[in-house]
Amino acid sequence: MIQSKAVSSGDALLSNEEVLETLHKGLDGRFTNQRVLVLIPDHTRSLPLPFLFRALVDILHDPKALDFMVALGTHPPLSEEGLHRLVGVTAQERVSTFKHVGLLNHDWKNPDALISVGVISQD
Predict the structure, then answer these.
(1) Predicted pLDDT of residue 86
(2) How far apart are CA 113 and CA 111, in angstroms?
(3) E strands within the chain?
(4) Cβ pair 61, 27 in contact under 8 A
(5) How far, rounded to the nearest angstrom, does the alpha carbon of residue 119 sit from its chain's CA centroid?
(6) Residue 82, Cα to own-chain centre: how many angstroms?
(7) How far is it, in rounded angstroms, from Cα 95 to Cα 117?
(8) Coil, helix or strand for 103?
């Protein structure tokens, strides 16, 4: 169910303010005391991830746990430095401002970390 959406006109991009307003409308107070996992692309995709990371951490200020997992596909995992660079934080910010936020690589290559949740038939 869509809680909030924004549509740009023509070829224009949404402004940061429009993005923030849309995120606030859709997410404010919706995940209080819940575990939240945000899936983010790796460095092979282009988007303003540092802006979105900071915005989401600010807006999702009251969950029980907040984690960001890099959807690696079959790419190799990122180092701690690579994770910091991806979301636009310094090593100092990671242990201070964002110490409550998990930054994870998807462990796609470890069969013990994966479970099958079912099979979708061709029909």
Answers:
(1) 97
(2) 5
(3) 35-41, 65-71, 101-105
(4) no
(5) 26
(6) 15
(7) 35
(8) strand
What is the residue type of 75?
H
Question: In this structure, what token pair is assigned to residue 32?
Answer: 């209080």
The answer to whether the beta carbons of residues 71 and 41 sit under 8 Å apart is: yes
Structure tokens at 84: 């910091």
The distance of Cα 57 from the centroid of its chain, to the nearest Å, equals 9
Q: 10-residue block means of pLDDT along the chain (123 residues)?
A: 86 93 95 97 92 97 96 90 97 97 90 85 89
**Pairwise CA distance, residues 15 & 121, whole Å:** 42
What integer pLDDT is reported at residue 110 of this predicted model? 84
Q: In what order do the strands lie in the sheet with 101-105?
A: 35-41, 65-71, 101-105
